[in-house]
Specification:
The complex is a heterodimer of chains A (about 325) and B (about 350). By secondary structure, chain A is of the alpha/beta class. Chain A is built from eleven helices and twelve strands. Chain A folds into two domains: about 25-125, 3-Layer(aba) Sandwich (Rossmann fold); about 135-275 and about 310-315, Response regulator (Rossmann fold), CATH 3.40.50.2300.
Chain lengths: ~325, ~350
Amino acid sequence: MKSRVLALAALAATTLAIAAPAAAQGKQYVIGFSQLAFDDPWRVAFNNQMQKAVAKHPNFKLVLVNAQRDSSKQIADVENLLTQKVDALIISPNEAAPLTAVVKRAFDKGVPVVVLDRNVLGEAYTMFIGADNKLIGKKAGEYVGKWCAEKKFNPCNVLEVTGLSGSTPAQERGEGFRDGIKASPSVKLAASVTSEWQKAKAMPAAAAAFQANKNFQVVYAHNDDSTEGAYIAAKNANLDLSKMLFVGIDGLPDKNGSIVSILQGRLGASFVYPNGAAEAVEWVSRILEKGEKPPKKVVLGTDEITPANAKAACEKYDCEFK
Amino acid sequence: MSTSAVSSTPIAQPGGRRVLDQVLRFQGYLGLLIVFVLGAVFAPVRDNTNLFLDVPNQMNILRYVAETGIIAIGMTLVILIGEIDLAVGAVLAFSATLTAYLLTGGQFGTSTAFVAVIVAGTALGFTNGIVTTGLRIPSFVVTLAMMSFARGLARLIFGGVSIPLLPVSQGGAAPESAFFFSERLFGVLPVPALVMFALALGVGAVMRYSAFGRHVYAIGGNPVAARLSGVRVDVTRVVVFAICGALTAFASFIHAIQLNQGAPNDGYAYELNAIAAVVIGGTSLQGGIGTIAGSVAGAWMLGMIDNVLNLNNVEADVQLLVKGALIVAAVALQRLQRRT
């Protein structure tokens, strides 16, 4: 037994000895990442996952810049990265129209450009990786349909807590959900209130909805924070939480995120809104090191996180639990 | 004050005018009353219960209003001396995150954490006051800078993510006693509302009966005259900003407890809600005129509007329109009062 361990150690040591110089000799690449903001938990997780993905490539160096939700700052950020002669540019643009030109400039220079989450206009970029809000909303709707059928609630009344009215993700998460529950006639969208994505606003809005109608079985909010706000309102209204389902979107791994919440038994389900960081770094590596030509557009799927798989999801997304 | 409009205002009958004057004196409360009546009239009825008038609903409104109300008390003092504090939302975010951080760190009990949070808020307010008076920079600019500074501080120290704040009994790390602030007295009256009323009474009494209160009104009415008559104008100004910071910190403690989190991104536009509450409550943005009770009534009215619209499931975009129109109507009423 002991000798086997030693042998393994020796093997590992030699492998390392061979691998280390090889990596050092391999061409070094600088990846510029222009992020529109660092200020919300989703973007923080986004940046963490980007750093982790880059760390897997010892010959990659990441330059991460923050546009602070200001498109003109982001234009300057990208110009700055180009001046630094980055080998590839990853960008999550604040707004499409203002950033299209500078992204095109990078692309025309021959720098591979991976656009994440929100797109720019036209085709002057290497590839776009983004999520599909409609699909995520639909999955949430289907899950609610399944849950209502299992619990035999008929009608199964849903309270929807929407994101900022008029914003694209709020619209699409709403539409997708309506699509998803079409196949379940027992599911009834009984009321819809708005939280503008904020927990502090979700609480009074949901409280008023529960005041108007105590008979809700499901709360579906367009983001996890708002679901948590509605959960507190339901608790304050003395509703029977054990007979209710709270569904959100985001599936964040931080200690205030929904994976932990599901493990703690508050939220019933959450759907991951993926950021594409890992995929972007993977594609940059394939473009730079293997000369591959990527697809123009990649649409990411979602992960359904429920009490059944929350532990596994926690490990997969490196969540902060205990 | 501006009286140029007097001559162009048609004059009502003397008798009617006196009645109107009396009504307008209570304009802050009048708005509250009108919204209350409208709410009751337009509320949905279920099982013979008017959902708006239902006691639990009124308590929900009070609970919701408490944070804005407490901040509005401090904001009233600031506006009374003719200044403004745009930093309260960011200070709330910082102090709420600090609250969650201290309570879940395991080293501090509820009272220590509470005192630390109030001290931190007071220090930020004090800084606003010192910079405004010491460097003679308008408070609009100083507190605008503080808005950015406090928000940045919250993000930097706590890493940009929110901190969950749950009691030990729910799998968290915070002492149970802190959650007193999310409870309801006798199962009915929300503690945050009680805190708001207690603070309003306390600060209201100080404003009415103490030298400090008289100085605040004097500075707002005419700072030069106040100085000439021996009021220590700068000291009073600094104290007012510090009080505003302390009250904001108190609101943030309640905010964190109620939301079960401390988030550096919370509190956006809270300064505007607080200013709206103060102005609706009849305090003049020029300073010198206004009451604490009016501001609390203003905050209460704003909360009631939100509640009625939500009870009726009014679309979010329409809510914004209605709210905007009601705020203008309330302040228009106030201008009418100035002219008469």
